[in-house]
Structure formats: C-alpha cells, structure tokens
Design goal:
- This is Acetone carboxylase.
- The protein is of the alpha+beta class.
- The protein has a domain of about 45 residues.
- Helices cover about 15% and strands about 25% of the residues.
- It is built from one helix and three strands, in the order E-E-H-E.
- The protein has a three-stranded antiparallel beta sheet with strand order 2-1-3, covered by helices on one side.
C-alpha cells in the first residue's frame, strides 16, 4: 500500500476544495518585513480571504498555488 500526501485544501473554514491560490501575508506588528505566512484558497474563496487579509493590511502577494 503506497502512502500519498494529502491534497492541499482551501483555508476557508469548512471548505474542502482543492487549493488553487497562495495568499502570502504577514502581520507587521509581530513579523519581520520579509516573513511570509501562507493561506491557500480555492477559486471561490480567493476574493473573500484576500479581502479579510487586505482589510488588516496583512496581504502581501497572491500567486498560483503549486504545492
């Protein structure tokens, strides 16, 4: 029996859709400017997760997820 790595799924609560986007962010109050944390998003949640991070001035980059 071969083991497979679990597929990456969207970071939105309760969503099990495959991740398509990497939302790179940091909290400038606690992270150094070069540090990036990552949330992944499906197509349906890309905008809402980006809006959430953007409203807090945390969002730095959005790029296709290749993981």
């Amino acid at each position: 029996m071969s083991e497979q790595a679990p597929a990456s799924v969207c970071s939105a609560r309760g969503c099990g859709a495959p991740a398509r986007w990497a939302l790179r962010w940091n909290n400038p109050k606690i992270h150094t400017p070069d540090r990036r944390k990552t949330w992944v998003a499906c197509d349906d949640h890309k905008q809402s997760l980006s809006d959430f991070l953007g409203a807090r001035s945390f969002l730095r980059e959005v790029e296709p997820f290749t993981g």
